[in-house]
Amino acid sequence: MAGASYSMPASIAFAAAMAGELGWTPLLNYLLTVTALLVAFYVVFRTGANLRFAEPGLTTAQVMAPLPPGLYLMYHVGSHEARAAMLLTVIVPLFYGLLDFGMRRFLGVTAVYFVAYCALFAVLAWHQPELLQDPDEWIMLIALAALMVQLGLIGGFVSELGDVLRRKNRELGEALTRIADMAVHDELTGVYNRHHLVDVLRREVSRAARGDAVFSVCLMDLDLFKQVNDRHGHLVADEVLRRCAHHVESRIRDIDTFGRYGGEEFVLVLPATGAPAARDVAERLRRELADLEFANDAGERFGITVSVGIAVSPRSPSATVDALLHEADAALYDAKNSGRNRVCSAAVPG
What we know:
- The protein is an alpha+beta fold.
- It has helices at about 1-20, 25-45, 60-65, 65-75, 80-90, 105-125, 135-185, 195-210, 225-230, 235-250, 275-290, 320-335, and strands spanning about 215-220, 255-260, 265-270, 295, 300, 305-310, 345.
- It is about 60% helix and about 10% strand.
- The longest helix is centred in the middle third of the chain and has 50 residues, at about 135-185.
- It catalyses: 2 GTP = 3',3'-c-di-GMP + 2 diphosphate.
């Protein structure tokens, strides 16, 4: 973009040189200067040196850099028409600031452009007093002033719209992140929800069917949880669910998946884990949960126990998530009927 904007006044200058209204030396000097600017900015950005500045985009520098060589070119051109054409192209780099400058900053930059041209006009009038009598020169100066004000206002407005858009996009991204998190996490406990657990189980069943690895499922149920609700209230019961869930989640492997299946039931998926290892994990968690201590609003302390049913996925293409959960649920039922606070395993598939 910078190269294209530099090429426009260069093209006009080349035409002026061909017409004899500009010397070849000023044109060559201009080309060398803008080429050096392009190379310098390219090197700065490619090496990452721009990141050391408070304004990494170097927008101000890129907007202001073309002004001196452009003024130099306009100073050496012979006719009013050629200078006016060059002026229109010299101000093109101002548009680089559309999505970066605020209103005040954009007005400030356009003011610098206008003052710089006024200075050029004053120097030209000093050497050519007849320019002060040329109405076209004054019309161009007034038109430039009006154009700079309009560019400043419109550019600042566009920049502010860009800020609003970036803020809205950031807020949208944060909202989408929250929605995505809510889609897979249980609102009460913060662990994974049933939907995500079923997705994980489907993937593990598919892997096991290919013969990649077996995995185990632990279906965990807090014993006599209805009594906790009735005796201590829903708020205390919710806290029991949260603490139990966080305790289990903090004591499993990164590759394991733990979540709330519904009510006071939780599911723990143990990839690459056979029945003996799964039972060891379940027994350890059962003992740890039994050691937790809770308190109600009156300060009365109580504990909770958990029953666990374990099922191991068979290496069979016909295996399904529902069948596996049914086996774990049957094992959990055995644990409940055997006195609760214990771990039972389903028959290991052949």
